[in-house]
Amino acid sequence: MRTDDVSGWGRGEFEMTCSHMDNSGSVDLLYAVRHGQSTANVAFAADELIESDDMTIELTELGERQAVAVGRWLVSLEADQLPELVLCSPYLRAVQTWQLAEQELRAANRTLPCHHIDQRLYDRSRGQLKHLPPAAVRDRFPDEPAKEARDPLGYRPPGGESFKDVAERLRGVVSDLRAEHRHRRVLIVAHDAVVLFLRQILENLTDTAVLALAEEGLAGNGSITSWQRTADGYQLLTYDQRTHLPET
């Protein structure tokens, strides 16, 4: 089921010319999808180290099926609910997720959205702690867990970025969306940290509220989160929706 057209995913070939009219209105509906299960997700859950470049980590077979399920969910939407623009993380697992979902739209003869890789939507960089499970972090970097515990959102791993850094780059994405007047419905395909801090920015959540959300559990692979624009900003419609996903 693997998509066979990802060779240009990092070079702008993933983009398409926009045919939507300017000044059509503000973004009314915003969807965010976390990529399907990746090989790194499986390794981390098994407390195993994976040696790989973050940008080239692929979907597992289950991750591919989750991406197809996202596509079928999109096919089920009414025309006035379908995204007109897709913004995708540059990481391969996110690009594969969108391409498999797009194949479902294409097969159903649904109108395809414009799509664009946004470099600001990459996953949080963990620097030297990249792909290390908690036990390995404690073994190799014994001082780091305590540093993170003291400031979970502001902590920067060696050579990496903090969650506040993630939020800062996402503010630029949200600012662009608020100024968007070609596409009224936008889908973001990215990562759990991106979904979490989109919630903070769009819903004006405090750091305390964000930490509480993270404690309850981050958005799952292939899950859907959505917001509706209101007079006061954006209101959450769904968070971490998984009812469309295969069980195994």
TrEMBL record:
The domain of life is Bacteria
Keywords linked to the UniProt accession: Glycolysis, Isomerase
Q: Coiled coil located at which positions? A: none
Name the CDD domains for this protein. HP_PGM_like (cd07067)
* Enzyme nomenclature, EC number: 5.4.2.11
Write down the InterPro entries for this protein, in alphabetical order.
His_Pase_superF_clade-1, His_PPase_superfam, Phosphogly_mut1
Q: Which major enzyme category is it?
A: isomerase
Q: Which family does it belong to?
A: Belongs to the phosphoglycerate mutase family. BPG-dependent PGAM subfamily.
Which PANTHER family does UniProt cross-reference here? PHOSPHOGLYCERATE MUTASE
Could you identify this protein by its name? phosphoglycerate mutase (2,3-diphosphoglycerate-dependent)
